[in-house]
Write a structure and sequence with these properties.
The protein has 625 residues and is of the alpha+beta class. Among the domains are: 146 residues, no CATH class; 171 residues, Thrombin, subunit H (Beta Barrel), CATH 2.40.10; 78 residues, Beta Barrel (Thrombin, subunit H). 24% of the residues lie in helices and 28% in strands. The protein has six helices and 36 strands. A five-stranded antiparallel β-sheet has the order 1-13-12-11-10, with no helix packed on it. Strands 2-5-36-35-34 form a five-stranded antiparallel β-sheet, with no helix packed on it. Helix 1 runs antiparallel to helix 3, helix 1 crosses helix 4 and helix 2 runs antiparallel to helix 3. The termini are far apart.
């Protein structure tokens, strides 16, 4: 190859290297002046929201600004990382080109004149200073690239950690409060919630108390030592059949958390403002972003704020609040609640139930088991979660185990607690970053698998032992969507990362990938033929599950935080305004209905017998014919 070509390559590489170095330095200086993480505007809006927590429009505005902040963060991270790669590549190209040029130079005859020696000396010094200057510039750029990337990550991890007082109140992680045969304290009445609006054609159950009952947990003295009861001394928990679990709605996104409902004759049309097919609605005492779960005729939710954590049981037939359990005085629980953002709050994780107990977890790391009457069975603190927004991973049960994904910046793990005692049965450390996704439990044909989504891993565990079954490094960023499973394939995604289809078998392998439409909040649903993805900015997409071919996309005016639920060949998806879009699970888009609730919705619906339960901004609704 001609010398001139390699000289040209070396010059272009050098110029490109210097430009990237200058841009990297400018980017670093810009970040020092304008922090992409901490914004005064959001802080002021949060202060206003604290003064007026019922301002829904202000809450939405904060969510949108928060999304822009996250985009700024990942854009900066991408720019820094890409700049470093380009700098290293151009440096390598420059070195290779110069080596070729120097190696092909013909030896020049030595000239003995003083004039020539002086010229060569000046030329050598000039080259030396240019090389030194360029080297310093490139080295500085690489150093600032590293510092920028590390500083951005540290800023984001510290952005919403707990207040200083929380650090001083580190919990005793293995302290479990066990309360047996505790009866509901009916002597104390909770504040009466306004009577739910019930349509005239709905008969009120005579077995339900007309007034809600507040259940107070056992008061724990500071010097009282409470030992967890040994699992050997407890009666073995009842084994709940898979069919019984499917007949109910025991966890976030239904049985196993996989987004499938097994109910029949669910309503397709309703109108909240006029009351059409709205059987009842009732006010929820405290705010929360957790979704309802259903067991027979009971519906369960949680609510919390900086000072109070509560579990609610509603009668599914009438909407009456049957009991309220106040969760406090748990050993190890922080004296001051950790800081959370308005779009997560203190009660984001959805509860779960095995039909014997109901289980709840809060932003403080407090986890509790209650019986169906609202009595506390056991309670413990797992350690205060540390992340940017607040804890949001929902709970699952498997046989006698309560399964918890607990991925946080100070500790990442998946664990199983004994459902009877709260004692840790197994705990598996995970090399991942903070995750807000929820676990999914599925039978993959040969075994049960607990599948988790986080940065950088999609990983599977044996729910019986906690043993890791497989993992793939294919994810990045702030992971919010849970995985979904269908016909031997696991689908995982996250915004600023990719959509990955993972084929299971003797070894988990990537079947296909795509990065056109990605979700940062809603979780997908899938059949053996199709994968359906919804984005927070309002796009709905259908893919071929086995090849990744995109069949169709549909854009809506409002985005989605609610996850999809599939029932037969119908898919239910609620937008932020509370309109439920129902469409066919098909490779051709066909919307069956768009039913408005008349209230903002950010949660996922629960399916009951011929009815749907929806938690809106302030109310719980039952929809039915």
């Amino acid at each position: 190859m001609k010398m001139d070509l390699w000289k040209g390559i070396a010059i272009l590489a050098a110029v490109f290297m210097l430009l990237v170095s200058l841009l990297t330095i400018v980017n670093y200086l810009q970040i020092q002046r304008a922090d992409p993480i901490h914004t005064e505007t959001i802080n002021l809006l949060v202060d206003r929201l604290n003064q007026n927590p019922q301002d829904v429009s202000l809450r939405d505005q904060i969510r949108e600004l928060d999304l822009l902040v996250r985009k700024a963060y990942f854009t900066n991270q991408w720019q820094v990382r890409t700049g470093a790669y380009l700098l290293l590549i151009s440096l390598a190209v420059f070195i290779i080109a110069m080596q070729i040029v120097e190696g092909r130079k013909k030896p020049q005859p030595e000239l003995e004149t003083e004039e020539t020696e002086g010229f060569l000396s000046i030329q050598k010094n000039t080259r030396r200073w240019v090389a030194v200057g360029g080297g310093v510039l490139v080295t500085t750029a690489l150093l600032l690239t590293y510092l920028t990337h590390s500083e951005l990550e540290n800023r984001f991890e510290l952005a919403a950690q707990g207040k200083p007082e929380v650090e001083k109140q580190l919990p005793a992680k293995d302290s479990v409060v066990v309360v047996q045969n505790k009866q509901a304290d009916v002597s104390k009445q909770a504040e009466v919630v306004p009577v739910p609006e019930v349509l005239p054609n709905v008969e009120e159950s005579k077995e339900v108390e007309k007034k809600p009952v507040e259940v107070q947990p056992k008061q724990i003295a500071e010097n009282e030592k409470i030992e967890p009861e040994s699992p050997k001394k407890t009666e073995p928990s009842k084994t709940i059949s898979e069919q019984t679990l499917k007949n109910n709605f025991p966890s976030f996104r239904g049985y196993g958390g996989n987004g499938v409902s097994f109910k029949e004759n669910l309503p397709l049309h309703w109108d909240g403002p006029s009351g059409e097919n709205v059987l009842w609605k009732t006010e929820i005492p405290l705010h929360g972003y957790n979704s309802p779960i259903v067991w027979e005729d009971k519906v369960f939710l949680t609510g919390a704020n900086d000072e109070r954590q509560e579990v609610y049981c509603f009668n599914g037939n009438t909407g009456v609040l049957v009991w309220t359990a106040v969760i406090d005085n748990i050993p190890g629980s922080p004296a001051v609640s950790p800081e959370v953002t308005p779009d997560t709050g203190h009660a984001a994780p959805t509860m779960c139930t095995d039909g014997t107990h109901v289980y709840a977890i809060f932003s403080t790391g407090d986890v509790v088991a209650l019986d169906m009457s609202g009595s506390i069975v056991w309670a413990r603190n797992l350690g205060v979660p540390r992340n940017h927004y607040g804890h949001s991973s929902s709970l699952l049960t498997y046989e006698d185990k309560l399964l918890i994904q607990y991925d946080h910046s100070n500790e990442a793990k998946v664990m199983a607690l004994n459902t009877q005692t709260g004692e840790t049965l197994w705990s598996t450390a995970r090399k991942v970053k903070v995750s807000w996704a929820s676990p999914v439990l599925v039978n993959t044909g040969s075994q049960m698998e607990l599948i988790l989504n986080a940065d950088p891993l999609v990983a599977s565990y044996n729910p019986e032992t906690g043993e890791e079954l497989w993992q793939l490094k294919c994810m990045m960023g702030e992971v919010g969507p849970s995985v979904v499973y269908a016909d031997g394939v696991v689908f995982a995604m996250n915004e600023y990362a990719s959509l990955v289809a993972i084929q299971l078998g003797e070894q988990a392998t990537i079947l296909w990938e795509d990065d056109e439409f990605l979700s940062d909040v809603p979780s997908p649903v899938a059949t053996d033929q199709y994968l359906f993805v919804a984005t927070s900015y309002g796009v709905l997409v259908c893919y071929d599950a086995k090849t990744g071919e995109k069949y169709w996309e549909q854009e809506y005016d409002d985005g989605f935080y609610s996850s999809m639920m599939m029932n037969g060949d119908h898919i239910y998806l609620i937008d932020k305004r509370g309109i439920t879009h129902i469409f066919k699970a098909s490779n051709v888009f066909e919307e069956i209905a768009a039913s408005p609730l008349g209230e903002a919705v950010y949660t996922t619906p629960a399916m009951g017998d011929k009815s749907i339960y929806i938690r809106a901004e302030k109310h719980l609704y039952r929809i039915g014919m």
